């Protein structure tokens, strides 16, 4: 048997091949670049579409799921800073306002705010109804008590010791004055 010596295979190393580090760098750069598809919307068929361009004008604003973030461009001006910053700030606020209000999270936040406001209004309405019912009951009792005091019939009440005492003319006048105050405040 005859032995044949074959040349040894050479393995490429990072030092000997400049192509490998270049490929690794290109791969890392490709991963680091942010996605360009910043617009997302639901089309007429219900499919979600992503693009780096805005949706067609036929897509309703409620069907736009996400928009690109608004970045204010630096303003280069030779005029004084106060004069240049006011219009730029107003323009950026006007541009950022409608965009920020249409994101799904903002819509959910607005819905929660509306629900909380409705609950608060319902609680306030219930409290007002309870107070109105209490005033109506106080009015009814005060009118009944005033009518009994004005009729001249004998009225007795219990004192602090639990004893029954009959009202004299001064006590009757004092009770009638209090009943009229309650009627004035609660009977509307």
The tally of helices reads 4
**Sequence stretches where pLDDT stays below 50 over 5 or more residues:** none
Shape: rod-shaped
Based on CA atoms alone, the radius of gyration comes out at 42 Å
- Major beta sheet summary: 3 strands, antiparallel
The arrangement of helices and strands along the chain is HEEEHHEEH
Order of strands, main sheet, comes to 2-1-3
- On the 0 to 100 scale, the average pLDDT is 77
Structural class by sheet pairing and helices: mainly alpha
Total beta strand runs: 5
Multimer state? single chain
| Through-space gap between termini | 125 Å
Fraction in beta strands:
5-15%
State the helical fraction.
40-55%
How would you summarize this macromolecular structure in one to three sentences?
The chain is mainly alpha-helical and 188 residues long. Helix content is 53%, strand content 9%.
List the helices and strands and how they pair.
Layout: H1 19-32, E1 39-42, E2 48-51, E3 64-66, H2 81-100, H3 104-150, E4 156-158, E5 164-166, H4 169-186
Antiparallel strand pairs: 1-2, 1-3, 4-5
What does this 3D model show about the protein?
The protein has 188 residues and is mostly helical. The protein has a domain at 108-186. The protein is 53% helix and 9% strand. It has 4 helices and 5 strands. It has helices spanning 19-32, 81-100, 104-150, 169-186; strands at 39-42, 48-51, 64-66, 156-158, 164-166. Strands 2-1-3 form a 3-stranded antiparallel β-sheet, with no helix packed on it. Strands 4-5 form a two-stranded antiparallel sheet. Strand 4 and strand 5 form a beta hairpin. The protein starts with 18 loop residues before the first helix and ends with a helix.
């Amino acid at each position: 048997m005859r032995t044949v010596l074959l040349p040894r295979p050479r393995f490429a190393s990072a030092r000997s091949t400049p192509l490998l580090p270049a490929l690794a760098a290109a791969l890392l750069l490709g991963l680091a670049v942010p996605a360009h598809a910043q617009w997302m919307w639901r089309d007429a068929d219900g499919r979600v579409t992503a693009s780096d361009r805005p949706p067609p004008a036929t897509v309703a604003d409620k069907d736009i799921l996400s928009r690109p973030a608004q970045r204010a461009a630096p303003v280069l001006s030779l005029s004084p800073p106060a004069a240049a910053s006011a219009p730029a700030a107003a323009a950026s606020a006007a541009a950022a306002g409608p965009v920020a209000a249409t994101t799904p999270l903002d819509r959910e936040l607005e819905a929660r705010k509306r629900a909380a406001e409705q609950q608060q209004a319902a609680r306030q309405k219930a409290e007002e109804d309870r107070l109105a019912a209490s005033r109506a009951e106080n009015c009814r009792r005060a009118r009944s008590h005033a009518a009994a005091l004005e009729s001249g019939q004998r009225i007795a009440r219990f004192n602090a010791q639990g004893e029954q005492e009959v009202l004299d003319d001064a006590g009757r006048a004092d009770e009638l004055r209090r009943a009229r105050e309650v009627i004035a405040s609660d009977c509307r």
